[in-house]
Amino acid sequence: MPASEREVYEHLLARADSARAVTMIAYAVFAEERKHWIDLFRARAGRAPTQSEIDDWVADLPEVRFKKLLDEAATYFDDAARSYLKTEMDGLRDRILQSQIIRQVRAASGWWRQLAIALMTAILAPLIIGAVIVSALAWGTALPSLVDMSVGLREFVPAVGE
Description:
The chain has 6 helices and no strands. It is mainly alpha-helical.
C-alpha cells in the first residue's frame, strides 16, 4: 500500500493486470480526487493541508479504492477508444461504400456490356415480334371464325320465318 502520493503511481503500475495507459489515466483520476480533497480540506480548515496530512490521506485509502481507480480508468480508456474507432470506422465504411458504388457503376457502364445488351435486343426483339405474329396467324387458321360458326349453326337451327 502506498504511504504517500508519490508512491501511488508505482503502486498502480505494479498491478500486472492493467496496461500502462490505463495506469496513467488512473493516476490522473487519483490526482483529481486529491485536488477535490485538498479543496474540501481548505474549506473546512481554512488552510491548505501539509504534505504530512496529504500522505496520511493517501495512506488511509483502502486497496479497493486503487482497484476502483483502475476500473474507472479502464472505462475512460474504453470510451475514448470506442469514440475514436467509431469515427475511424464510419470514415472507412463510407470509403468502402463509395468505392463499391464506383466499381458497380464502372461495371455497368462498360462498353462490352452495353454492346451485349444492344445485340441481344436487336436479335431477340424481332424474334419475339415474329413469334407473336406467327402465333396470331396460326390461331386464326386453327380455330373457326365467328362467320364459320354462324354458318354451321344455320344447319341446326332453322331461320326465322322459314
